[in-house]
Amino acid sequence: MPEGHSVHRIARQFDRNIVGHAVHASSPQGRFAEGASVIDGRTATSVRAVGKQMFLEFDGDLWLRVHLGMYGAWDFAGEIQADPTIAAANGRMGQTNQRGTVFDDAGENSLTSIGAPRRTRVRMSEQTTGLPEQDAQWPPPVVGQVRLRLLTEVTCADLRGPTACELQTPDEVAATIAKLGPDPLVDDVAAGEQRVVEVIARKPTAIGQLLMDQGVVSGIGNVYRAELLFRARQNPHTPGRDVPSDVVRGIWRDWVRLLQIGVETGQMMTMDDLSPDGWRAAMASRDDRHWVYHRAGLPCRVCGTTILVEEMATRKLYWCPNCQS
Questions:
Q1: pTM of the full predicted structure?
Q2: Which among 83, 157, 234, 247 could disulfide-bond with 150, CB atoms 3.0 to 4.6 Å apart, if both were Cys?
Q3: Which of 3, 108, 193, 264 is catalytic?
Q4: How much helix, strand and coil, in percent to the nearest 5, is found in the chain?
C-alpha cells in the first residue's frame, strides 16, 4: 500500500502539472463515468495530501478524493514538470553532495522518479516501476483498467485500482480530514506531536496497531510502522497507554524526519549513517534499505537475533524480539 510519502509526491506532481489547467475527464473503465462527467471541462484549482489520501479541488467548490489503498496507482504521461522540492533531492538528504542516477530493483530512478519534462510514462505508487517509452500518439492509448483519466493539453494522469475515488463537497472534505490523525507535512508539528502523545496515552491497544491507525497518526503504513518501532527499540505489543510519553514523542519526531526523506528521495529509506556506497546500495535495493522490514528469518542488523514476522491486525509485523524486548 502506498504510504504517506508517496501520496505527498503524487500531490506535488498534480500541483506542478494539473493544477491551473482545465481537464478533460473520462472513465475508460466505466466505474467512475458519472463522476468524470461532472468534472469534465473544469479547472483544477488546488491539491492537498493528508496521510494516504489526496484531495484535488476543481472550480465550483468540488473536490475529488482518492485513496489508493493496496493496489491503486497514478500513471502520468506527457510533458512532466518536476517539482523542485523533489527534483532537488541531493544525495543522502544533505549528508553528502553525491549525485547520480540510482535505479532500484523495481526499476525506479530514486532521485529523479518524476524527472524533467519528457515524453514518457511515470508511475506514482508504492511499487513504482519504469514503464516503456511511448510513441508519439496523443493522447496516449488507454492501458488496462483505468478508473479515471485526467487530460490537459500536454499531460495525462491515469488512475488505476483505487480503494476510493469519489467527489466531495468542501464540508465532506473537511469531515474526512477531521477523522484523520496529524500529518507532519500538513499540521503544526508541535501540535501534532502533542495530539499523538495524548491519544496513544489513552489507548489499551498495542502500539504496533496504533501506528497503523490513520485516526491516530496519518500516513504510516506497514513498512514505516516496523521501522519506526525498531528505531525506537519499542516492543510492538506494548499497550499504547504503557509506552512512555518520551518514547511516543521520539517516534513522532522520527516520523517527521523519515517522511520528509521519503518525499524527497522517493524511497522509504530508514537506515542511518550509511557510507556513500552503502547509501547507493540501499537506494538500489530494498533489501538494503530497512532494519527489519521484510527480513523475517534473517539476523538482526544490530544484535544478530532472528527477525520475526507475525500477523497483527491482518498485516505482517516484522520485529526483533531482542532489540525490541
A1: 0.85
A2: 157
A3: 3
A4: 30, 20, 50
84 given a catalytic annotation: no
- Separation between Cα atoms, residue 94 and residue 110, nearest integer Å: 15
Say which residues have a Cβ less than 8 Å from residue 178's Cβ, sequence separation at least 6. Answer: none
User: Same domain, yes or no, for 69 and 169?
Assistant: yes
> Does one domain contain both 303 and 162?
no
- Residue 76: inside a domain: yes
Chain mean position to CA 41: 29
For residues 234 and 12, what is the distance between their CA atoms, to the nearest angstrom? 33
Is 99 contained in some domain?
Answer: no
Is 52 assigned a catalytic role?
yes
92 vs 60, 108, 141, 252, CA distance in Å? 42, 17, 38, 21
Phi and psi at residue 294, in whole multiples of 5°? 65, 25
Q: Which residue in the list 31, 119, 233, 315 is annotated as catalytic? A: 315
Which of 13-17, 99-103, 245-249 has maximum average pLDDT? 245-249
Residues 132 and 44 in one domain: yes
Task: Determine what percent of the chain is predicted with pLDDT higher than 70.
Answer: 83
pLDDT in tens, 249-269: 999 999 999 999 988 888 889
Pairing between strand 155-160 and 146-151?
antiparallel
Q: Among 9, 52, 225, 289, which one carries the catalytic annotation?
A: 52
* Residue 88: inside a domain: no
